[in-house]
Amino acid sequence: YLASGNTPKNDIIILFSDAEEIGLDGAKLFVNEHPWAKNVGLVLNFEARGTSGPSNMILETNGGNSKLVKEFIQANPDFPVASSLMYSVYKMLPNDTDSTVFREDGDIDSFFFAFIDSHFNYHTANDTFYNLSRNSLAHQGSYLLPLIHYFANADLSKLKSKTDDVYVNLPLLKMISYPFSWILPMLILATLIFLYLIFYGLYKRRLNGKMIAVGFVPFLLSLIFCGILGFFGWKFILAIYPQYLEIQQGFTYNGHWYIAFFVFLSLAITFGVYKKFGKKFNEPSFYVAPLLFWLLINVAVFIILKGAAFFIIPVFFGLLSFFVMLRQERPSLLAMTLLGAPALFIFAPLIQFFPVGLGLKMLVISCVFTVLLFTILWPVFGYYKGKGILSVLCLLLSVFFFIKAHSKSDFSEERKKPNSLVYFKDADVEKTYWLTYDKEIDEWTQQYLGEKPETTTENLAEAPYNKYGYTYSYMNEAPEKNIPDFEIILDKDTVVENLRNVLFTIVPKRKVNKIDLYSDQFVSFKSLEFNGQKASLYNEKNKDYRGTKNDALINYYVSENDSLKVNFSVAENVSVSFKVMEYSFDLMTDQQFNISKRPNYTMPKPFVITDAIAVKRTFSVDSLRVKITDTININPEIILNDK
Asked: What is the per-residue burial (b if ≥16 Cβ within 10 Å, else e) of 573-609?
């Protein structure tokens, strides 16, 4: 706009929101405190949960999505990757982005765009510009330019809607959408066409009841075998390669090779199973089972996950293929391939999407989707005579991909092992320990934990909140160092009208980065403030302020070694105890410890507090000094006489 001299109808705000990972704090500050926020009509939020892959578009809105989807299609980005399935799944997951804050606190609609591949780099020392895929970055740009030009001059007051649309991207068409109200009629229509074609096939003697029943056998066997393969196969691989458990994201450096291994092994099984029934083949009859199953999937989608209702589109093309099979003895392979293309374009990406997005534990979905895709493409594969050869070929390819994955199973400078080390001081008992989250001790952590480290005891296993719920795994006694305890200053402790009001200050005596404050038992606080800011109630009914993900009263990220003032009120007879966890992220640089440099094949473990010095201390307010009770009793019967 600056270069062209054109002035957009709507103002464009470029917002850099910081502190997203510790609680979306930057977005909250803008939405709730900045005067511009009340005039924002739409947010374009660019995210990343990895360093590569296509950028997926997902919506955030309190109402329906139909107008947002239509406007997005009108904006005409070059390479949209989006589906209402991702939108529906996202709404069911406990995931938050800055867009969540704009929606919940400001009722502001958002499009957010995120690439999620190379998840193993996410929040690690490898999450850098140098590992960032330039194609992924360019894909983000392909959204930004057309959308900002379009919405800069659009009427942003007309984006609200009460209805939802099904939408999905397709080659050539880019994106299609239709309202949720079409889902049931389309399902009923597909079911009626399916029933008609069965009666038509039986009437024309192109279908055989016995062969239809036989057709369920290879279909169900393939589905069951491959489902078992995906579920237990990954567990077996984890048993062979326990080092994979160190990668908390759930997607290993060689994850794509494992996806290829399981997909081709599933194809080998499916081709092999259908080969066993080769002498009994009646191609149209064998297509009834997968079509019926896909219709049942769409019934479930209508009930549970309406965003996936575009699954019905390949079914309609499958029904058309079924009709051609009933009309022709040997349909054109090219025609069948073209009719199968929508299924390939819609379902094939999902085979990779689920393990990439949700971790390799979801390989079972990849295996099942491989069978479902194979069977809906039965009009293509069913007429192949060389199913046995294809089965062997797929088996050989699966072996190749497994060997390839094995060759990249170890850690190296390119595939770094995440490890962790914490120096923990329990100030209550004056004991110090080395702690780690690691499942396997390496040469670096062994220096401090020993060759045979002790499993962490229950009182030490509890770790600060982290995304994947990791606790400390191993411990070893550590030499005592000069780590000054923080000071607790009781500023006020009074009782007025049966309400105890307390103000105390936690003063760090060293450079610290984080303070977590817990109440040792459930306390019904009447009020609670930190550094003059009122805390938000997590549970209004129970007056519970423990709204953080680790049940702390506050996770305080310390700036400039500032102190933490805590002001609270409780009932007069309540004795309150607190636990304080104080962290500094300087274990590697503190000269008292002289910690050796990590080997070049390792890096700090992400999502947890590591390379840190932690101090734990518990105290009760009563123990700080003798409580002075200043009680004022007001007798309502006393009448003040101005005489």
From this structure: eeebebbbbbbbbebeebeebebeebeebbbbbbbbb
Quick one: DSSP state of residue 136? H
Q: Which domain holds residue 150?
A: 25-163
The residue with greater pLDDT, 632 or 522, is 522
Q: How many domains does the chain have?
A: 3
Q: Residue 3 falls within a domain, yes or no?
A: no
CA dihedral 105, 110, 115, 119 (to 10 degrees): 10
Element (H, E) at 513: none
Last residue of a domain, one of 387, 407, 427: 407
Split at pLDDT 50, 70, 90, the class of 270 is very high
Shared domain check, 134 and 224: no
Residues with Cβ within 8 Å of 236's Cβ and at least 6 positions away in sequence, in order, are none
Residue at a domain's end among 407, 428, 453? 407
The pLDDT tens digits of the residues spanning 544-589 come to: 565 555 578 888 999 888 999 999 998 888 888 999 999 999 999 9
Same domain, 550 and 454: yes
Same structural domain, 627 and 489: yes
In a domain, 171, yes or no: no
Q: Which residues pair with 44 in a beta bridge?
A: 111
Q: Which of 90-94, 193-197, 346-350, 477-481 has the lowest mean pLDDT?
A: 90-94
Burial of 202 (0-12, 13-18, 19+ CB in 10 A): middle
Residue 550: the pLDDT is 59
The CATH number for 433's domain is 2.60.40.2410
pLDDT at 388 over 80: yes
Tell me if 5 is assigned to some domain: no
- At 422 the three-state DSSP class reads strand
> For 513-527, what is each residue's pLDDT tens digit?
999 998 866 778 888
> By the 8 A CB rule, do 612 and 512 touch?
no
User: Order of strands, edge to edge, in the sheet holding 499-507?
Assistant: 487-496, 499-507, 564-571, 527-530, 533-534
Q: Do 399 and 426 belong together in one domain? A: no
Q: What is the rounded (10 degree) CA torsion for 60, 65, 67, 69?
A: 80
The model carries a pTM of 0.89
Token pair for residue 392?
């062997």
Average pLDDT, the chain: 91
| C-alpha–C-alpha distance, residues 604 and 8, integer Å | 46
